[in-house]
Design brief:
The structure holds two protein chains of two kinds. Chain A is of the alpha+beta class. Chain A contains eleven helices and 15 strands. In chain A, helix 1 runs antiparallel to helix 2. The relative contact order of chain B is 0.31. Classes of the chains: A alpha+beta, B mainly beta.
């Protein structure tokens, strides 16, 4: 502000003194002035963001949970054409760099997002574009697969956000404190998710342990006024032994998805939803983030029963490439205005066997844009 | 981008003697960095 005030004073003095030369001198200050002001503003915003992130980290260390706080930014994001932005980002990152520039760009990316370039399978010059570099494969042996036959391995590189056993009615996963989403909404209504009627669950548990039955707080008139979505004629609970794990991939992480166990993929579902960002800030401000975003769900069976893996896209990493079904195209231009289209489903052949995957097999990749 | 896994895993049939039960247990903590191929959880061979 003081800089702009000085600039105005300089301009006023110039106009008092008169003369075209001094007026043009005043104008020539305007462009660098605006640039400096913009840079300063961006600097302040960045500093504030770093400060906020530090506060969040400190809160986490103290064991304080993040709470869901919808804000104006979330509302603003809903108005943006995020799919078009994502596709434009994909186009820009597909532009090929000249050979001499490639190592510089990729080293800068690695420095900014903490990637390990030593692990890249090919020399940096061989990745023609940032998009190609982003989905790079790794040198053999970079990711040894745990050989224990009684373990389930991580399908990706990333940060563990949530994990646990699904016990509550409706099989809900907590997005952040104060807001949860149901697994059946994430995987699709036609999912083979092992659920049983809440009454059956009661009978089942009677023989093992005494559980207190949850009293429903809804009266008949609140149910009748509620939307049809809320009305569930048969309340269901997940069967015992149903677990979940949510893993977040940062932009610098290895972005290929592998098989967590030996299993048979029977069905693929593609939800062509929105493309909100998936960072920590977004998870605590955008409601139903994982359920609204575009995603590919693979569902099948392993030696212990049900297995499902959902790969969820974001604005910057909008498309999901499936190696077991190369024809699948995601992040396509949207033709309909509605975001709540039913998922596109494909059952893999042969029926009941589907596609067999071994532990560690490459299944999919997240692409830029 | 995010990956969500949902799966059935072995559970303890008897609440007693948990140490010897074939129950599935996660071997991770929230906020941990994990690499592809590292164990998320284990169970005992029954």
């Amino acid at each position: 502000t003081s800089f702009l005030q000085k600039l105005q004073i300089t301009q006023a003095r110039a106009s008092i003194n008169g003369g075209s030369s001094s007026s043009s001198q005043g104008n020539s200050f305007l462009v660098p002035g605006a640039t400096v002001a913009t840079i300063a503003m961006l600097g302040v915003l960045h500093a504030r963001r770093l400060y906020d992130d530090k506060k969040v980290e400190e809160a986490k260390e103290k064991g304080i949970e993040l709470e869901f706080q919808p804000d104006a930014k979330a509302t603003f994001l809903r108005l943006l054409p995020l799919r078009s932005i994502s596709r434009l980002w994909g186009f820009l990152t597909s532009v090929e760099f000249p050979l001499w520039l490639r190592p510089h760009v990729y080293r800068a990316w690695a420095r900014a997002f903490h990637s390990n370039l030593e692990e890249a399978a090919m020399p940096l010059e061989e990745y023609a574009s940032l998009r190609q570099f982003f989905v790079r494969t790794l040198k053999e042996g970079s990711r040894p697969i745990d050989s224990d036959s009684c373990c389930l391995v991580s399908p990706v590189d990333g940060t563990i956000l949530r994990f646990g056993e699904l016990k509550e009615a409706g099989a809900m996963i907590e997005q952040v404190k104060g807001f949860s989403y149901s697994v059946s909404s994430l995987l699709g209504a036609s999912s083979f998710l092992p659920m049983i009627a809440a009454d059956d669950m009661q009978e089942e548990s009677n023989g093992q342990e005494n559980t207190q039955r949850d009293e429903s707080k809804k009266s008949w008139w609140t149910i009748s006024l509620a939307s049809p979505k809320v009305r569930d004629p048969v309340p269901t609970r997940p069967m015992k032994g149903l677990f979940y794990c949510v893993i977040y991939l940062k932009p610098g992480d290895y972005h290929r998805v592998h098989s967590p166990v030996k299993w048979n993929v029977l069905v693929r579902r593609h939800f062509s939803g929105r493309l909100f960002p998936l960072n920590e800030r977004a998870t605590k401000t955008i409601r139903n983030l994982y359920v609204e975003n575009e995603r590919v769900v693979l569902e099948g069976q392993w030696q212990e029963g049900f297995m499902a893996m959902a790969a969820i896209g974001a604005t910057n990493i909008g498309s999901i490439e499936l190696f077991i079904e190369p024809a699948l195209r995601t992040n396509r231009p949207r033709k309909k205005l509605l975001h709540s289209e039913p998922p596109e489903e494909r059952e893999y052949e042969p029926k009941g066997i589907g596609v067999m995957l071994k532990k560690g097999d490459e299944v999919a990749a997240f692409n830029m844009g | 981008s995010t990956v969500v896994l949902v799966f059935q895993a072995p559970i303890s049939k008897s609440p007693k003697d948990k140490a010897l039960s074939p129950e599935f247990r996660f071997c991770i903590r929230r906020g941990d960095r994990i690499q592809m191929g590292q164990a998320l959880g284990r169970w005992r061979d029954s």
